[in-house]
Amino acid sequence: MVLYKKFKKNNCFEKTKYKEFFKEKLDFGKLVNFGTNKKLPIYNWFKYKEAFSKELVERIITNFNMKKEDKVIFDPFCGIGTTLLASKQLGLNYLGSDLSPLCQFITRAKLDFNRYNTKELKRELEKIKKWDIKEMRSEIKEEDSNLMKYSIFDKSFLDKDNLRELFGLKNKIENEYTNRPFVKQILNLALISILEEVSDTKKDGAFFRLIRKDNKPNVINAFVKKVNSLINSLEEYNFSLTNFLSEKKEYGDGDVKIADSRKLPFETNSVDITITSPPYLNRYDYTRIYQLELYLLFCKSFEELRNIRYNTIRSHVEAKYKDFGIFNSEILKERLEKLSKRELNNQRIPYMIQGYFDDMFLTMKELYRVTKKKGIIVFVVGSTRFSGVSIPVDTILLEIGEQSGFTPVEVWITRYKGNTPQQIQKYGLEAVRESIVILRKD
Ligand SMILES: C[S@@+](CC[C@H](N)C(=O)[O-])C[C@H]1O[C@@H](n2cnc3c(N)ncnc32)[C@H](O)[C@@H]1O
Question: What is the pLDDT of residues 139-159, one digit of tens each?
Fold first, then answer.
């Protein structure tokens, strides 16, 4: 609370023509992150700290009166599918995409929640418990033997039996369930969900850390436990449907693709409302944090993974893209000039910042194209601070929206966030906002 008062005193607002659009909605603070999803069946199938909550999506849909069957909800950075799943459950049609094949897979696996047969899954789980672990460890595909030799697997699995068990299990699922796509899908979801637990690694904010763990479960035990919890989750969801709903539930329909937000594979004038959250400008490289998951099921080589990394939004210094310097704004120019006089811990930071807004500009233009007239765009974003210089992502996004043809509607400030102790010590405290930026296509 003391900190919050300090933030209020410390004016974190820029003097721009957009100031009047800002409204405090601090009751949304808890909804812009994954926290409230942790106990929700299906939403909690895969831990993805970068996700937002189901309730946020529901409140936005209600707020903009989109609860009608003919409406299409869209998310071009769909992550683990929160927007799409909430829309489907509300009976609304949805479209979504993400650059990461891992995200597309998880989203699809969750969206198929009403197509799994829990009795069949339980029967299969009983068979799996009897699989011969020794045999499994020895049956590894040749392309996987090559992947296993990558230093990242070598360092992440100090116990080599566990590593062989992992790839053996992958192979076994592939062979046993080729003709039963839904069983295979849920088993593969379980397989990628246990990687942090069974390896000597830890996802720690922006970092993927290697840490020795002495009491790890072995792969097959962790896998059986996870499959069991997925089945329980489906049963819990079905139970709440049959016991608390008087009428039959109608679900929405839709699709999720692997796609770059800067080149969307969707038709012009096809969506009513976009509810999304792009990567924050915080240097997180998702392709590094989720590298084990990406390698295990989706990328056959380092080059494939690197290609995804280069094409992610330039929110981290390793992303690359052909267009640079295409978006101009006074406030961005002023902040970059300030930054050029500061000491930086990575010289690529100014390029990353300019590139990030260029990417948002390209994305926004695509969103303008796919959005129907009177359609709404809702972007959850976080502002940020580098070497004491604040980058007001929400304000700049309003400018980008306007330059792309949209009309600014409002910015809801959901949270004021602090800075790292190092920044406070060196440059003082200045709150950064986490906001919901809303635009309309008139
Ligand atoms: C903040 S997360 C979205 C989380 C999502 N709202 C949820 O609830 O799961 C941002 C997503 O953007 C994706 N991404 C990064 N670069 C992209 C690009 N160029 N095109 C599309 N998606 C991209 C990342 O893979 C990540 O899943």
Answer: 999 889 999 999 999 999 999
Sequence-ordered list of residues with C-beta below 8 angstroms from that of 5, at least 6 positions apart, any chain: none
Q: What is the CATH number of the domain that holds 42?
A: 3.40.50.150
Note the Cα 299 to chain centre separation in Å.
18
CA–centroid distance, 261 to ligand 1, in Å, is: 9
Residues 71 and 200 in one domain: no
Q: Which two tokens stand for residue 234?
A: 């489906």
Last residue of a domain, one of 244, 259, 278: 244
- DSSP letter (8 states) at residue 21: G
Summarize pLDDT for 415-440 with one digit per residue, the tens.
998 777 888 888 888 889 999 999 99
Which has the closest alpha carbon to 369: 226, 259, 270? 270
**Cβ density class 18-32: b for 16+ within 10 Å, e for less:** beebbeebeebeebb
Which residue has a Cα nearest atom 20 of ligand 1? Answer: 260
Q: Whose CA is nearest to atom 3 of ligand 1?
A: 79
Residue 366 lies in a domain: yes
SS3 string of 207-254?
EEEECCCCCCCCHHHHHHHHHHHHHHHHHHHHHHHHHHCCCCCCCCCE
Between CA 66 and CA 73 the distance in angstroms is 9
Based on the domain organization, do 133 and 29 belong to the same domain? no
- Report the number of distinct structural domains present in the chain: 2
Q: Are residues 46 and 170 in the same domain?
A: no
Distance CA 172, CA 168 (A): 6
* Ligand 1 contact via 293 beta carbon (within 6 Å): no
Q: Which tokens in the block code for residue 32?
A: 């812009």
What is the distance in A from the centroid of ligand 1 to the CA of 396? 19
pTM > 0.85: yes or no: yes
For residues 274 and 409, state if they share a domain: yes
Does 312 contact ligand 1 (Cβ within 6 A)?
yes
Give the range of the structural domain holding residue 277, as residue numbers without chain letter: 2-111+250-286+297-440
Tokens for 19?
Answer: 């100031």
- Rounded to the nearest whole angstrom, what is the distance from the C-alpha of residue 78 to the centroid of ligand 1? 6
User: Are residue 211 and residue 342 in the same domain, yes or no?
Assistant: no
Same-domain status, 85 and 132: no
**Do 305 and 429 belong to one domain?**
yes
Query: Nearest to residue 366, comparing CAs of 377, 354, 350?
Result: 377
317 Cβ neighbours under 8 A, 6+ residues apart: 283, 346, 348, 349, 351, 352
In the prediction, which pLDDT does 200 show? 97
213 and 129 co-located in one domain? yes
C-alpha 103 to ligand 1 mean position (Å): 8
The answer to whether residue 291 is domain-embedded is: no
Query: If DSSP codes are grouped into helix, strand and coil, which group holds residue 240?
Result: helix
Which pLDDT does position 247 carry in this prediction?
A: 63
